[in-house]
Structure prediction request, 598 residues.
Amino acid sequence: MFKNILIIGCGLIGSSILRASINKKISKNFFVFEKSEKNIREIKKINKKIIILNKLNNKISNIDFVILATPMSQYERVIPYLNKYLSKKSLITDVGSTKENIKKLKNKSLTKSLDWIMSHPISGSEVSGPKYGSKSLFINKWCIVFSDKNKVKQKKLINFWKKIGSKVIIMDEKVHDKIFSITSHLPHLIAYNLIKTAQDFQKIQKKDIIKFSAGGLRDFSRIAASNEIMWRDIFFSNKKNVVSAINLFIKNLKSFKKNIENLDDNTLRKKLVNSKKVRQQILNLKQDIAKPDFGRDQN
Amino acid sequence: MFKNILIIGCGLIGSSILRASINKKISKNFFVFEKSEKNIREIKKINKKIIILNKLNNKISNIDFVILATPMSQYERVIPYLNKYLSKKSLITDVGSTKENIKKLKNKSLTKSLDWIMSHPISGSEVSGPKYGSKSLFINKWCIVFSDKNKVKQKKLINFWKKIGSKVIIMDEKVHDKIFSITSHLPHLIAYNLIKTAQDFQKIQKKDIIKFSAGGLRDFSRIAASNEIMWRDIFFSNKKNVVSAINLFIKNLKSFKKNIENLDDNTLRKKLVNSKKVRQQILNLKQDIAKPDFGRDQN
Prediction:
């Protein structure tokens, strides 16, 4: 498919793309730009033919496919090097979790002759770093590709994601940022906030509660262990949608509280029954493992 | 250990106690009182020697160990039969998720000569019914037993839970209801509320979002699929503690929102980093599976 792939930032997602691309022989050569020494040691274990760059310079002028997989807050620092060294034949993509901000950034800072078509693979984990990457991370997962006027390169990008196992869907960045404020950003924020609330409770009440987290809290602690740089970037970039998601959430929670205070059996039960249906929809769409308790078994 | 065990209400927890007790030969005879025809069909498959009662009458006068495993809102209807037919030699326990209410109820309605010592096994699932029960549900899980002046029977109850695999801890009902309002009741309420918020968003925006639930929402949908009768009972019974947990949660969420609106990098990042530590504590205490993403793998 490509001659020279360059992955900029090789953490969980970057290294998974690298592994999957090597596995599917997506390119002849594989370049990685990564600054963390620890990450570099892990990446070297993946495959001997990976070429690790410690600078973005004229060595990247023959790259035909660039994948930005650093935290989003780093994109701005990378763009000048892309402008300077990439040829217009190349295709650039990114894997950032919010898109209106990236679109603005590339419109503002990217040289007009370069093509950057955005992607968002819906996959990830609470762990980070190349150590946890996997060549099968994208298999059967959604990858969103964003509309672009260069249809030839868009097609190429779609084929790339399909080749490493993704199901591809095309979306507009405004719609994307709205949808993911609800399906991803709000859940993460709520998980962080629940853990914070549990920590506060522990301080006030001086009771050891973590021991009894199996009754629900532990589920949230997984998501609340996600990378803080990545999530700060997301919350800040999608501020407008995240804030309105929080407002809707608080409004609903206050109404829930009222139902409990008033022992309003009918309304409360209706809400609980309704929520139940969503799990079944998620399982029907194969968006989660169809086993009770996520198939978790510690015994 | 016992001659005749009676399990009243044989859903997920009741049937798991039944299975574990048969497996560990806890009793000579096993009685079950259950009303649902569907449940009875499942229970009959477990073991031929299970005796299914369709009434609580003088057939239960020789029961030496009764376990109440119906939804808590049913306890009040069962107590008159215990009063009428049980002998004072018997030991009664329950597996209800809140305890101040049960203590009040038994003080008010149970015959003084009978001994009811409360238990709370910290195990469960989003699925319900005997079909999903398991003899190993309690292995290495906490079971809380509540202080009682009858130390002989208390010891007997503790031994029972240990024998079917639980780690036992003794607690006071007030402390229990506070702790679990944070580790279990609030997380469930928040999960229900998040799913409700997603449903509302879907209605307002007319966008199909469930498809993209893998980015976080799906985790919450599991807990929000829990049994509505059980959870209504819990929210209502532990109203006071749940309401103050909600208040603390909303206060924290508003402060989180402010951090995002002000792009307050320092404060926000400090919060995210702090939350991360809790996951590690939970894993160190073996309260969750120590694999990324709960070891979930759909490929």
Observations:
- Chain B has two domains: 2-171, 175-295.
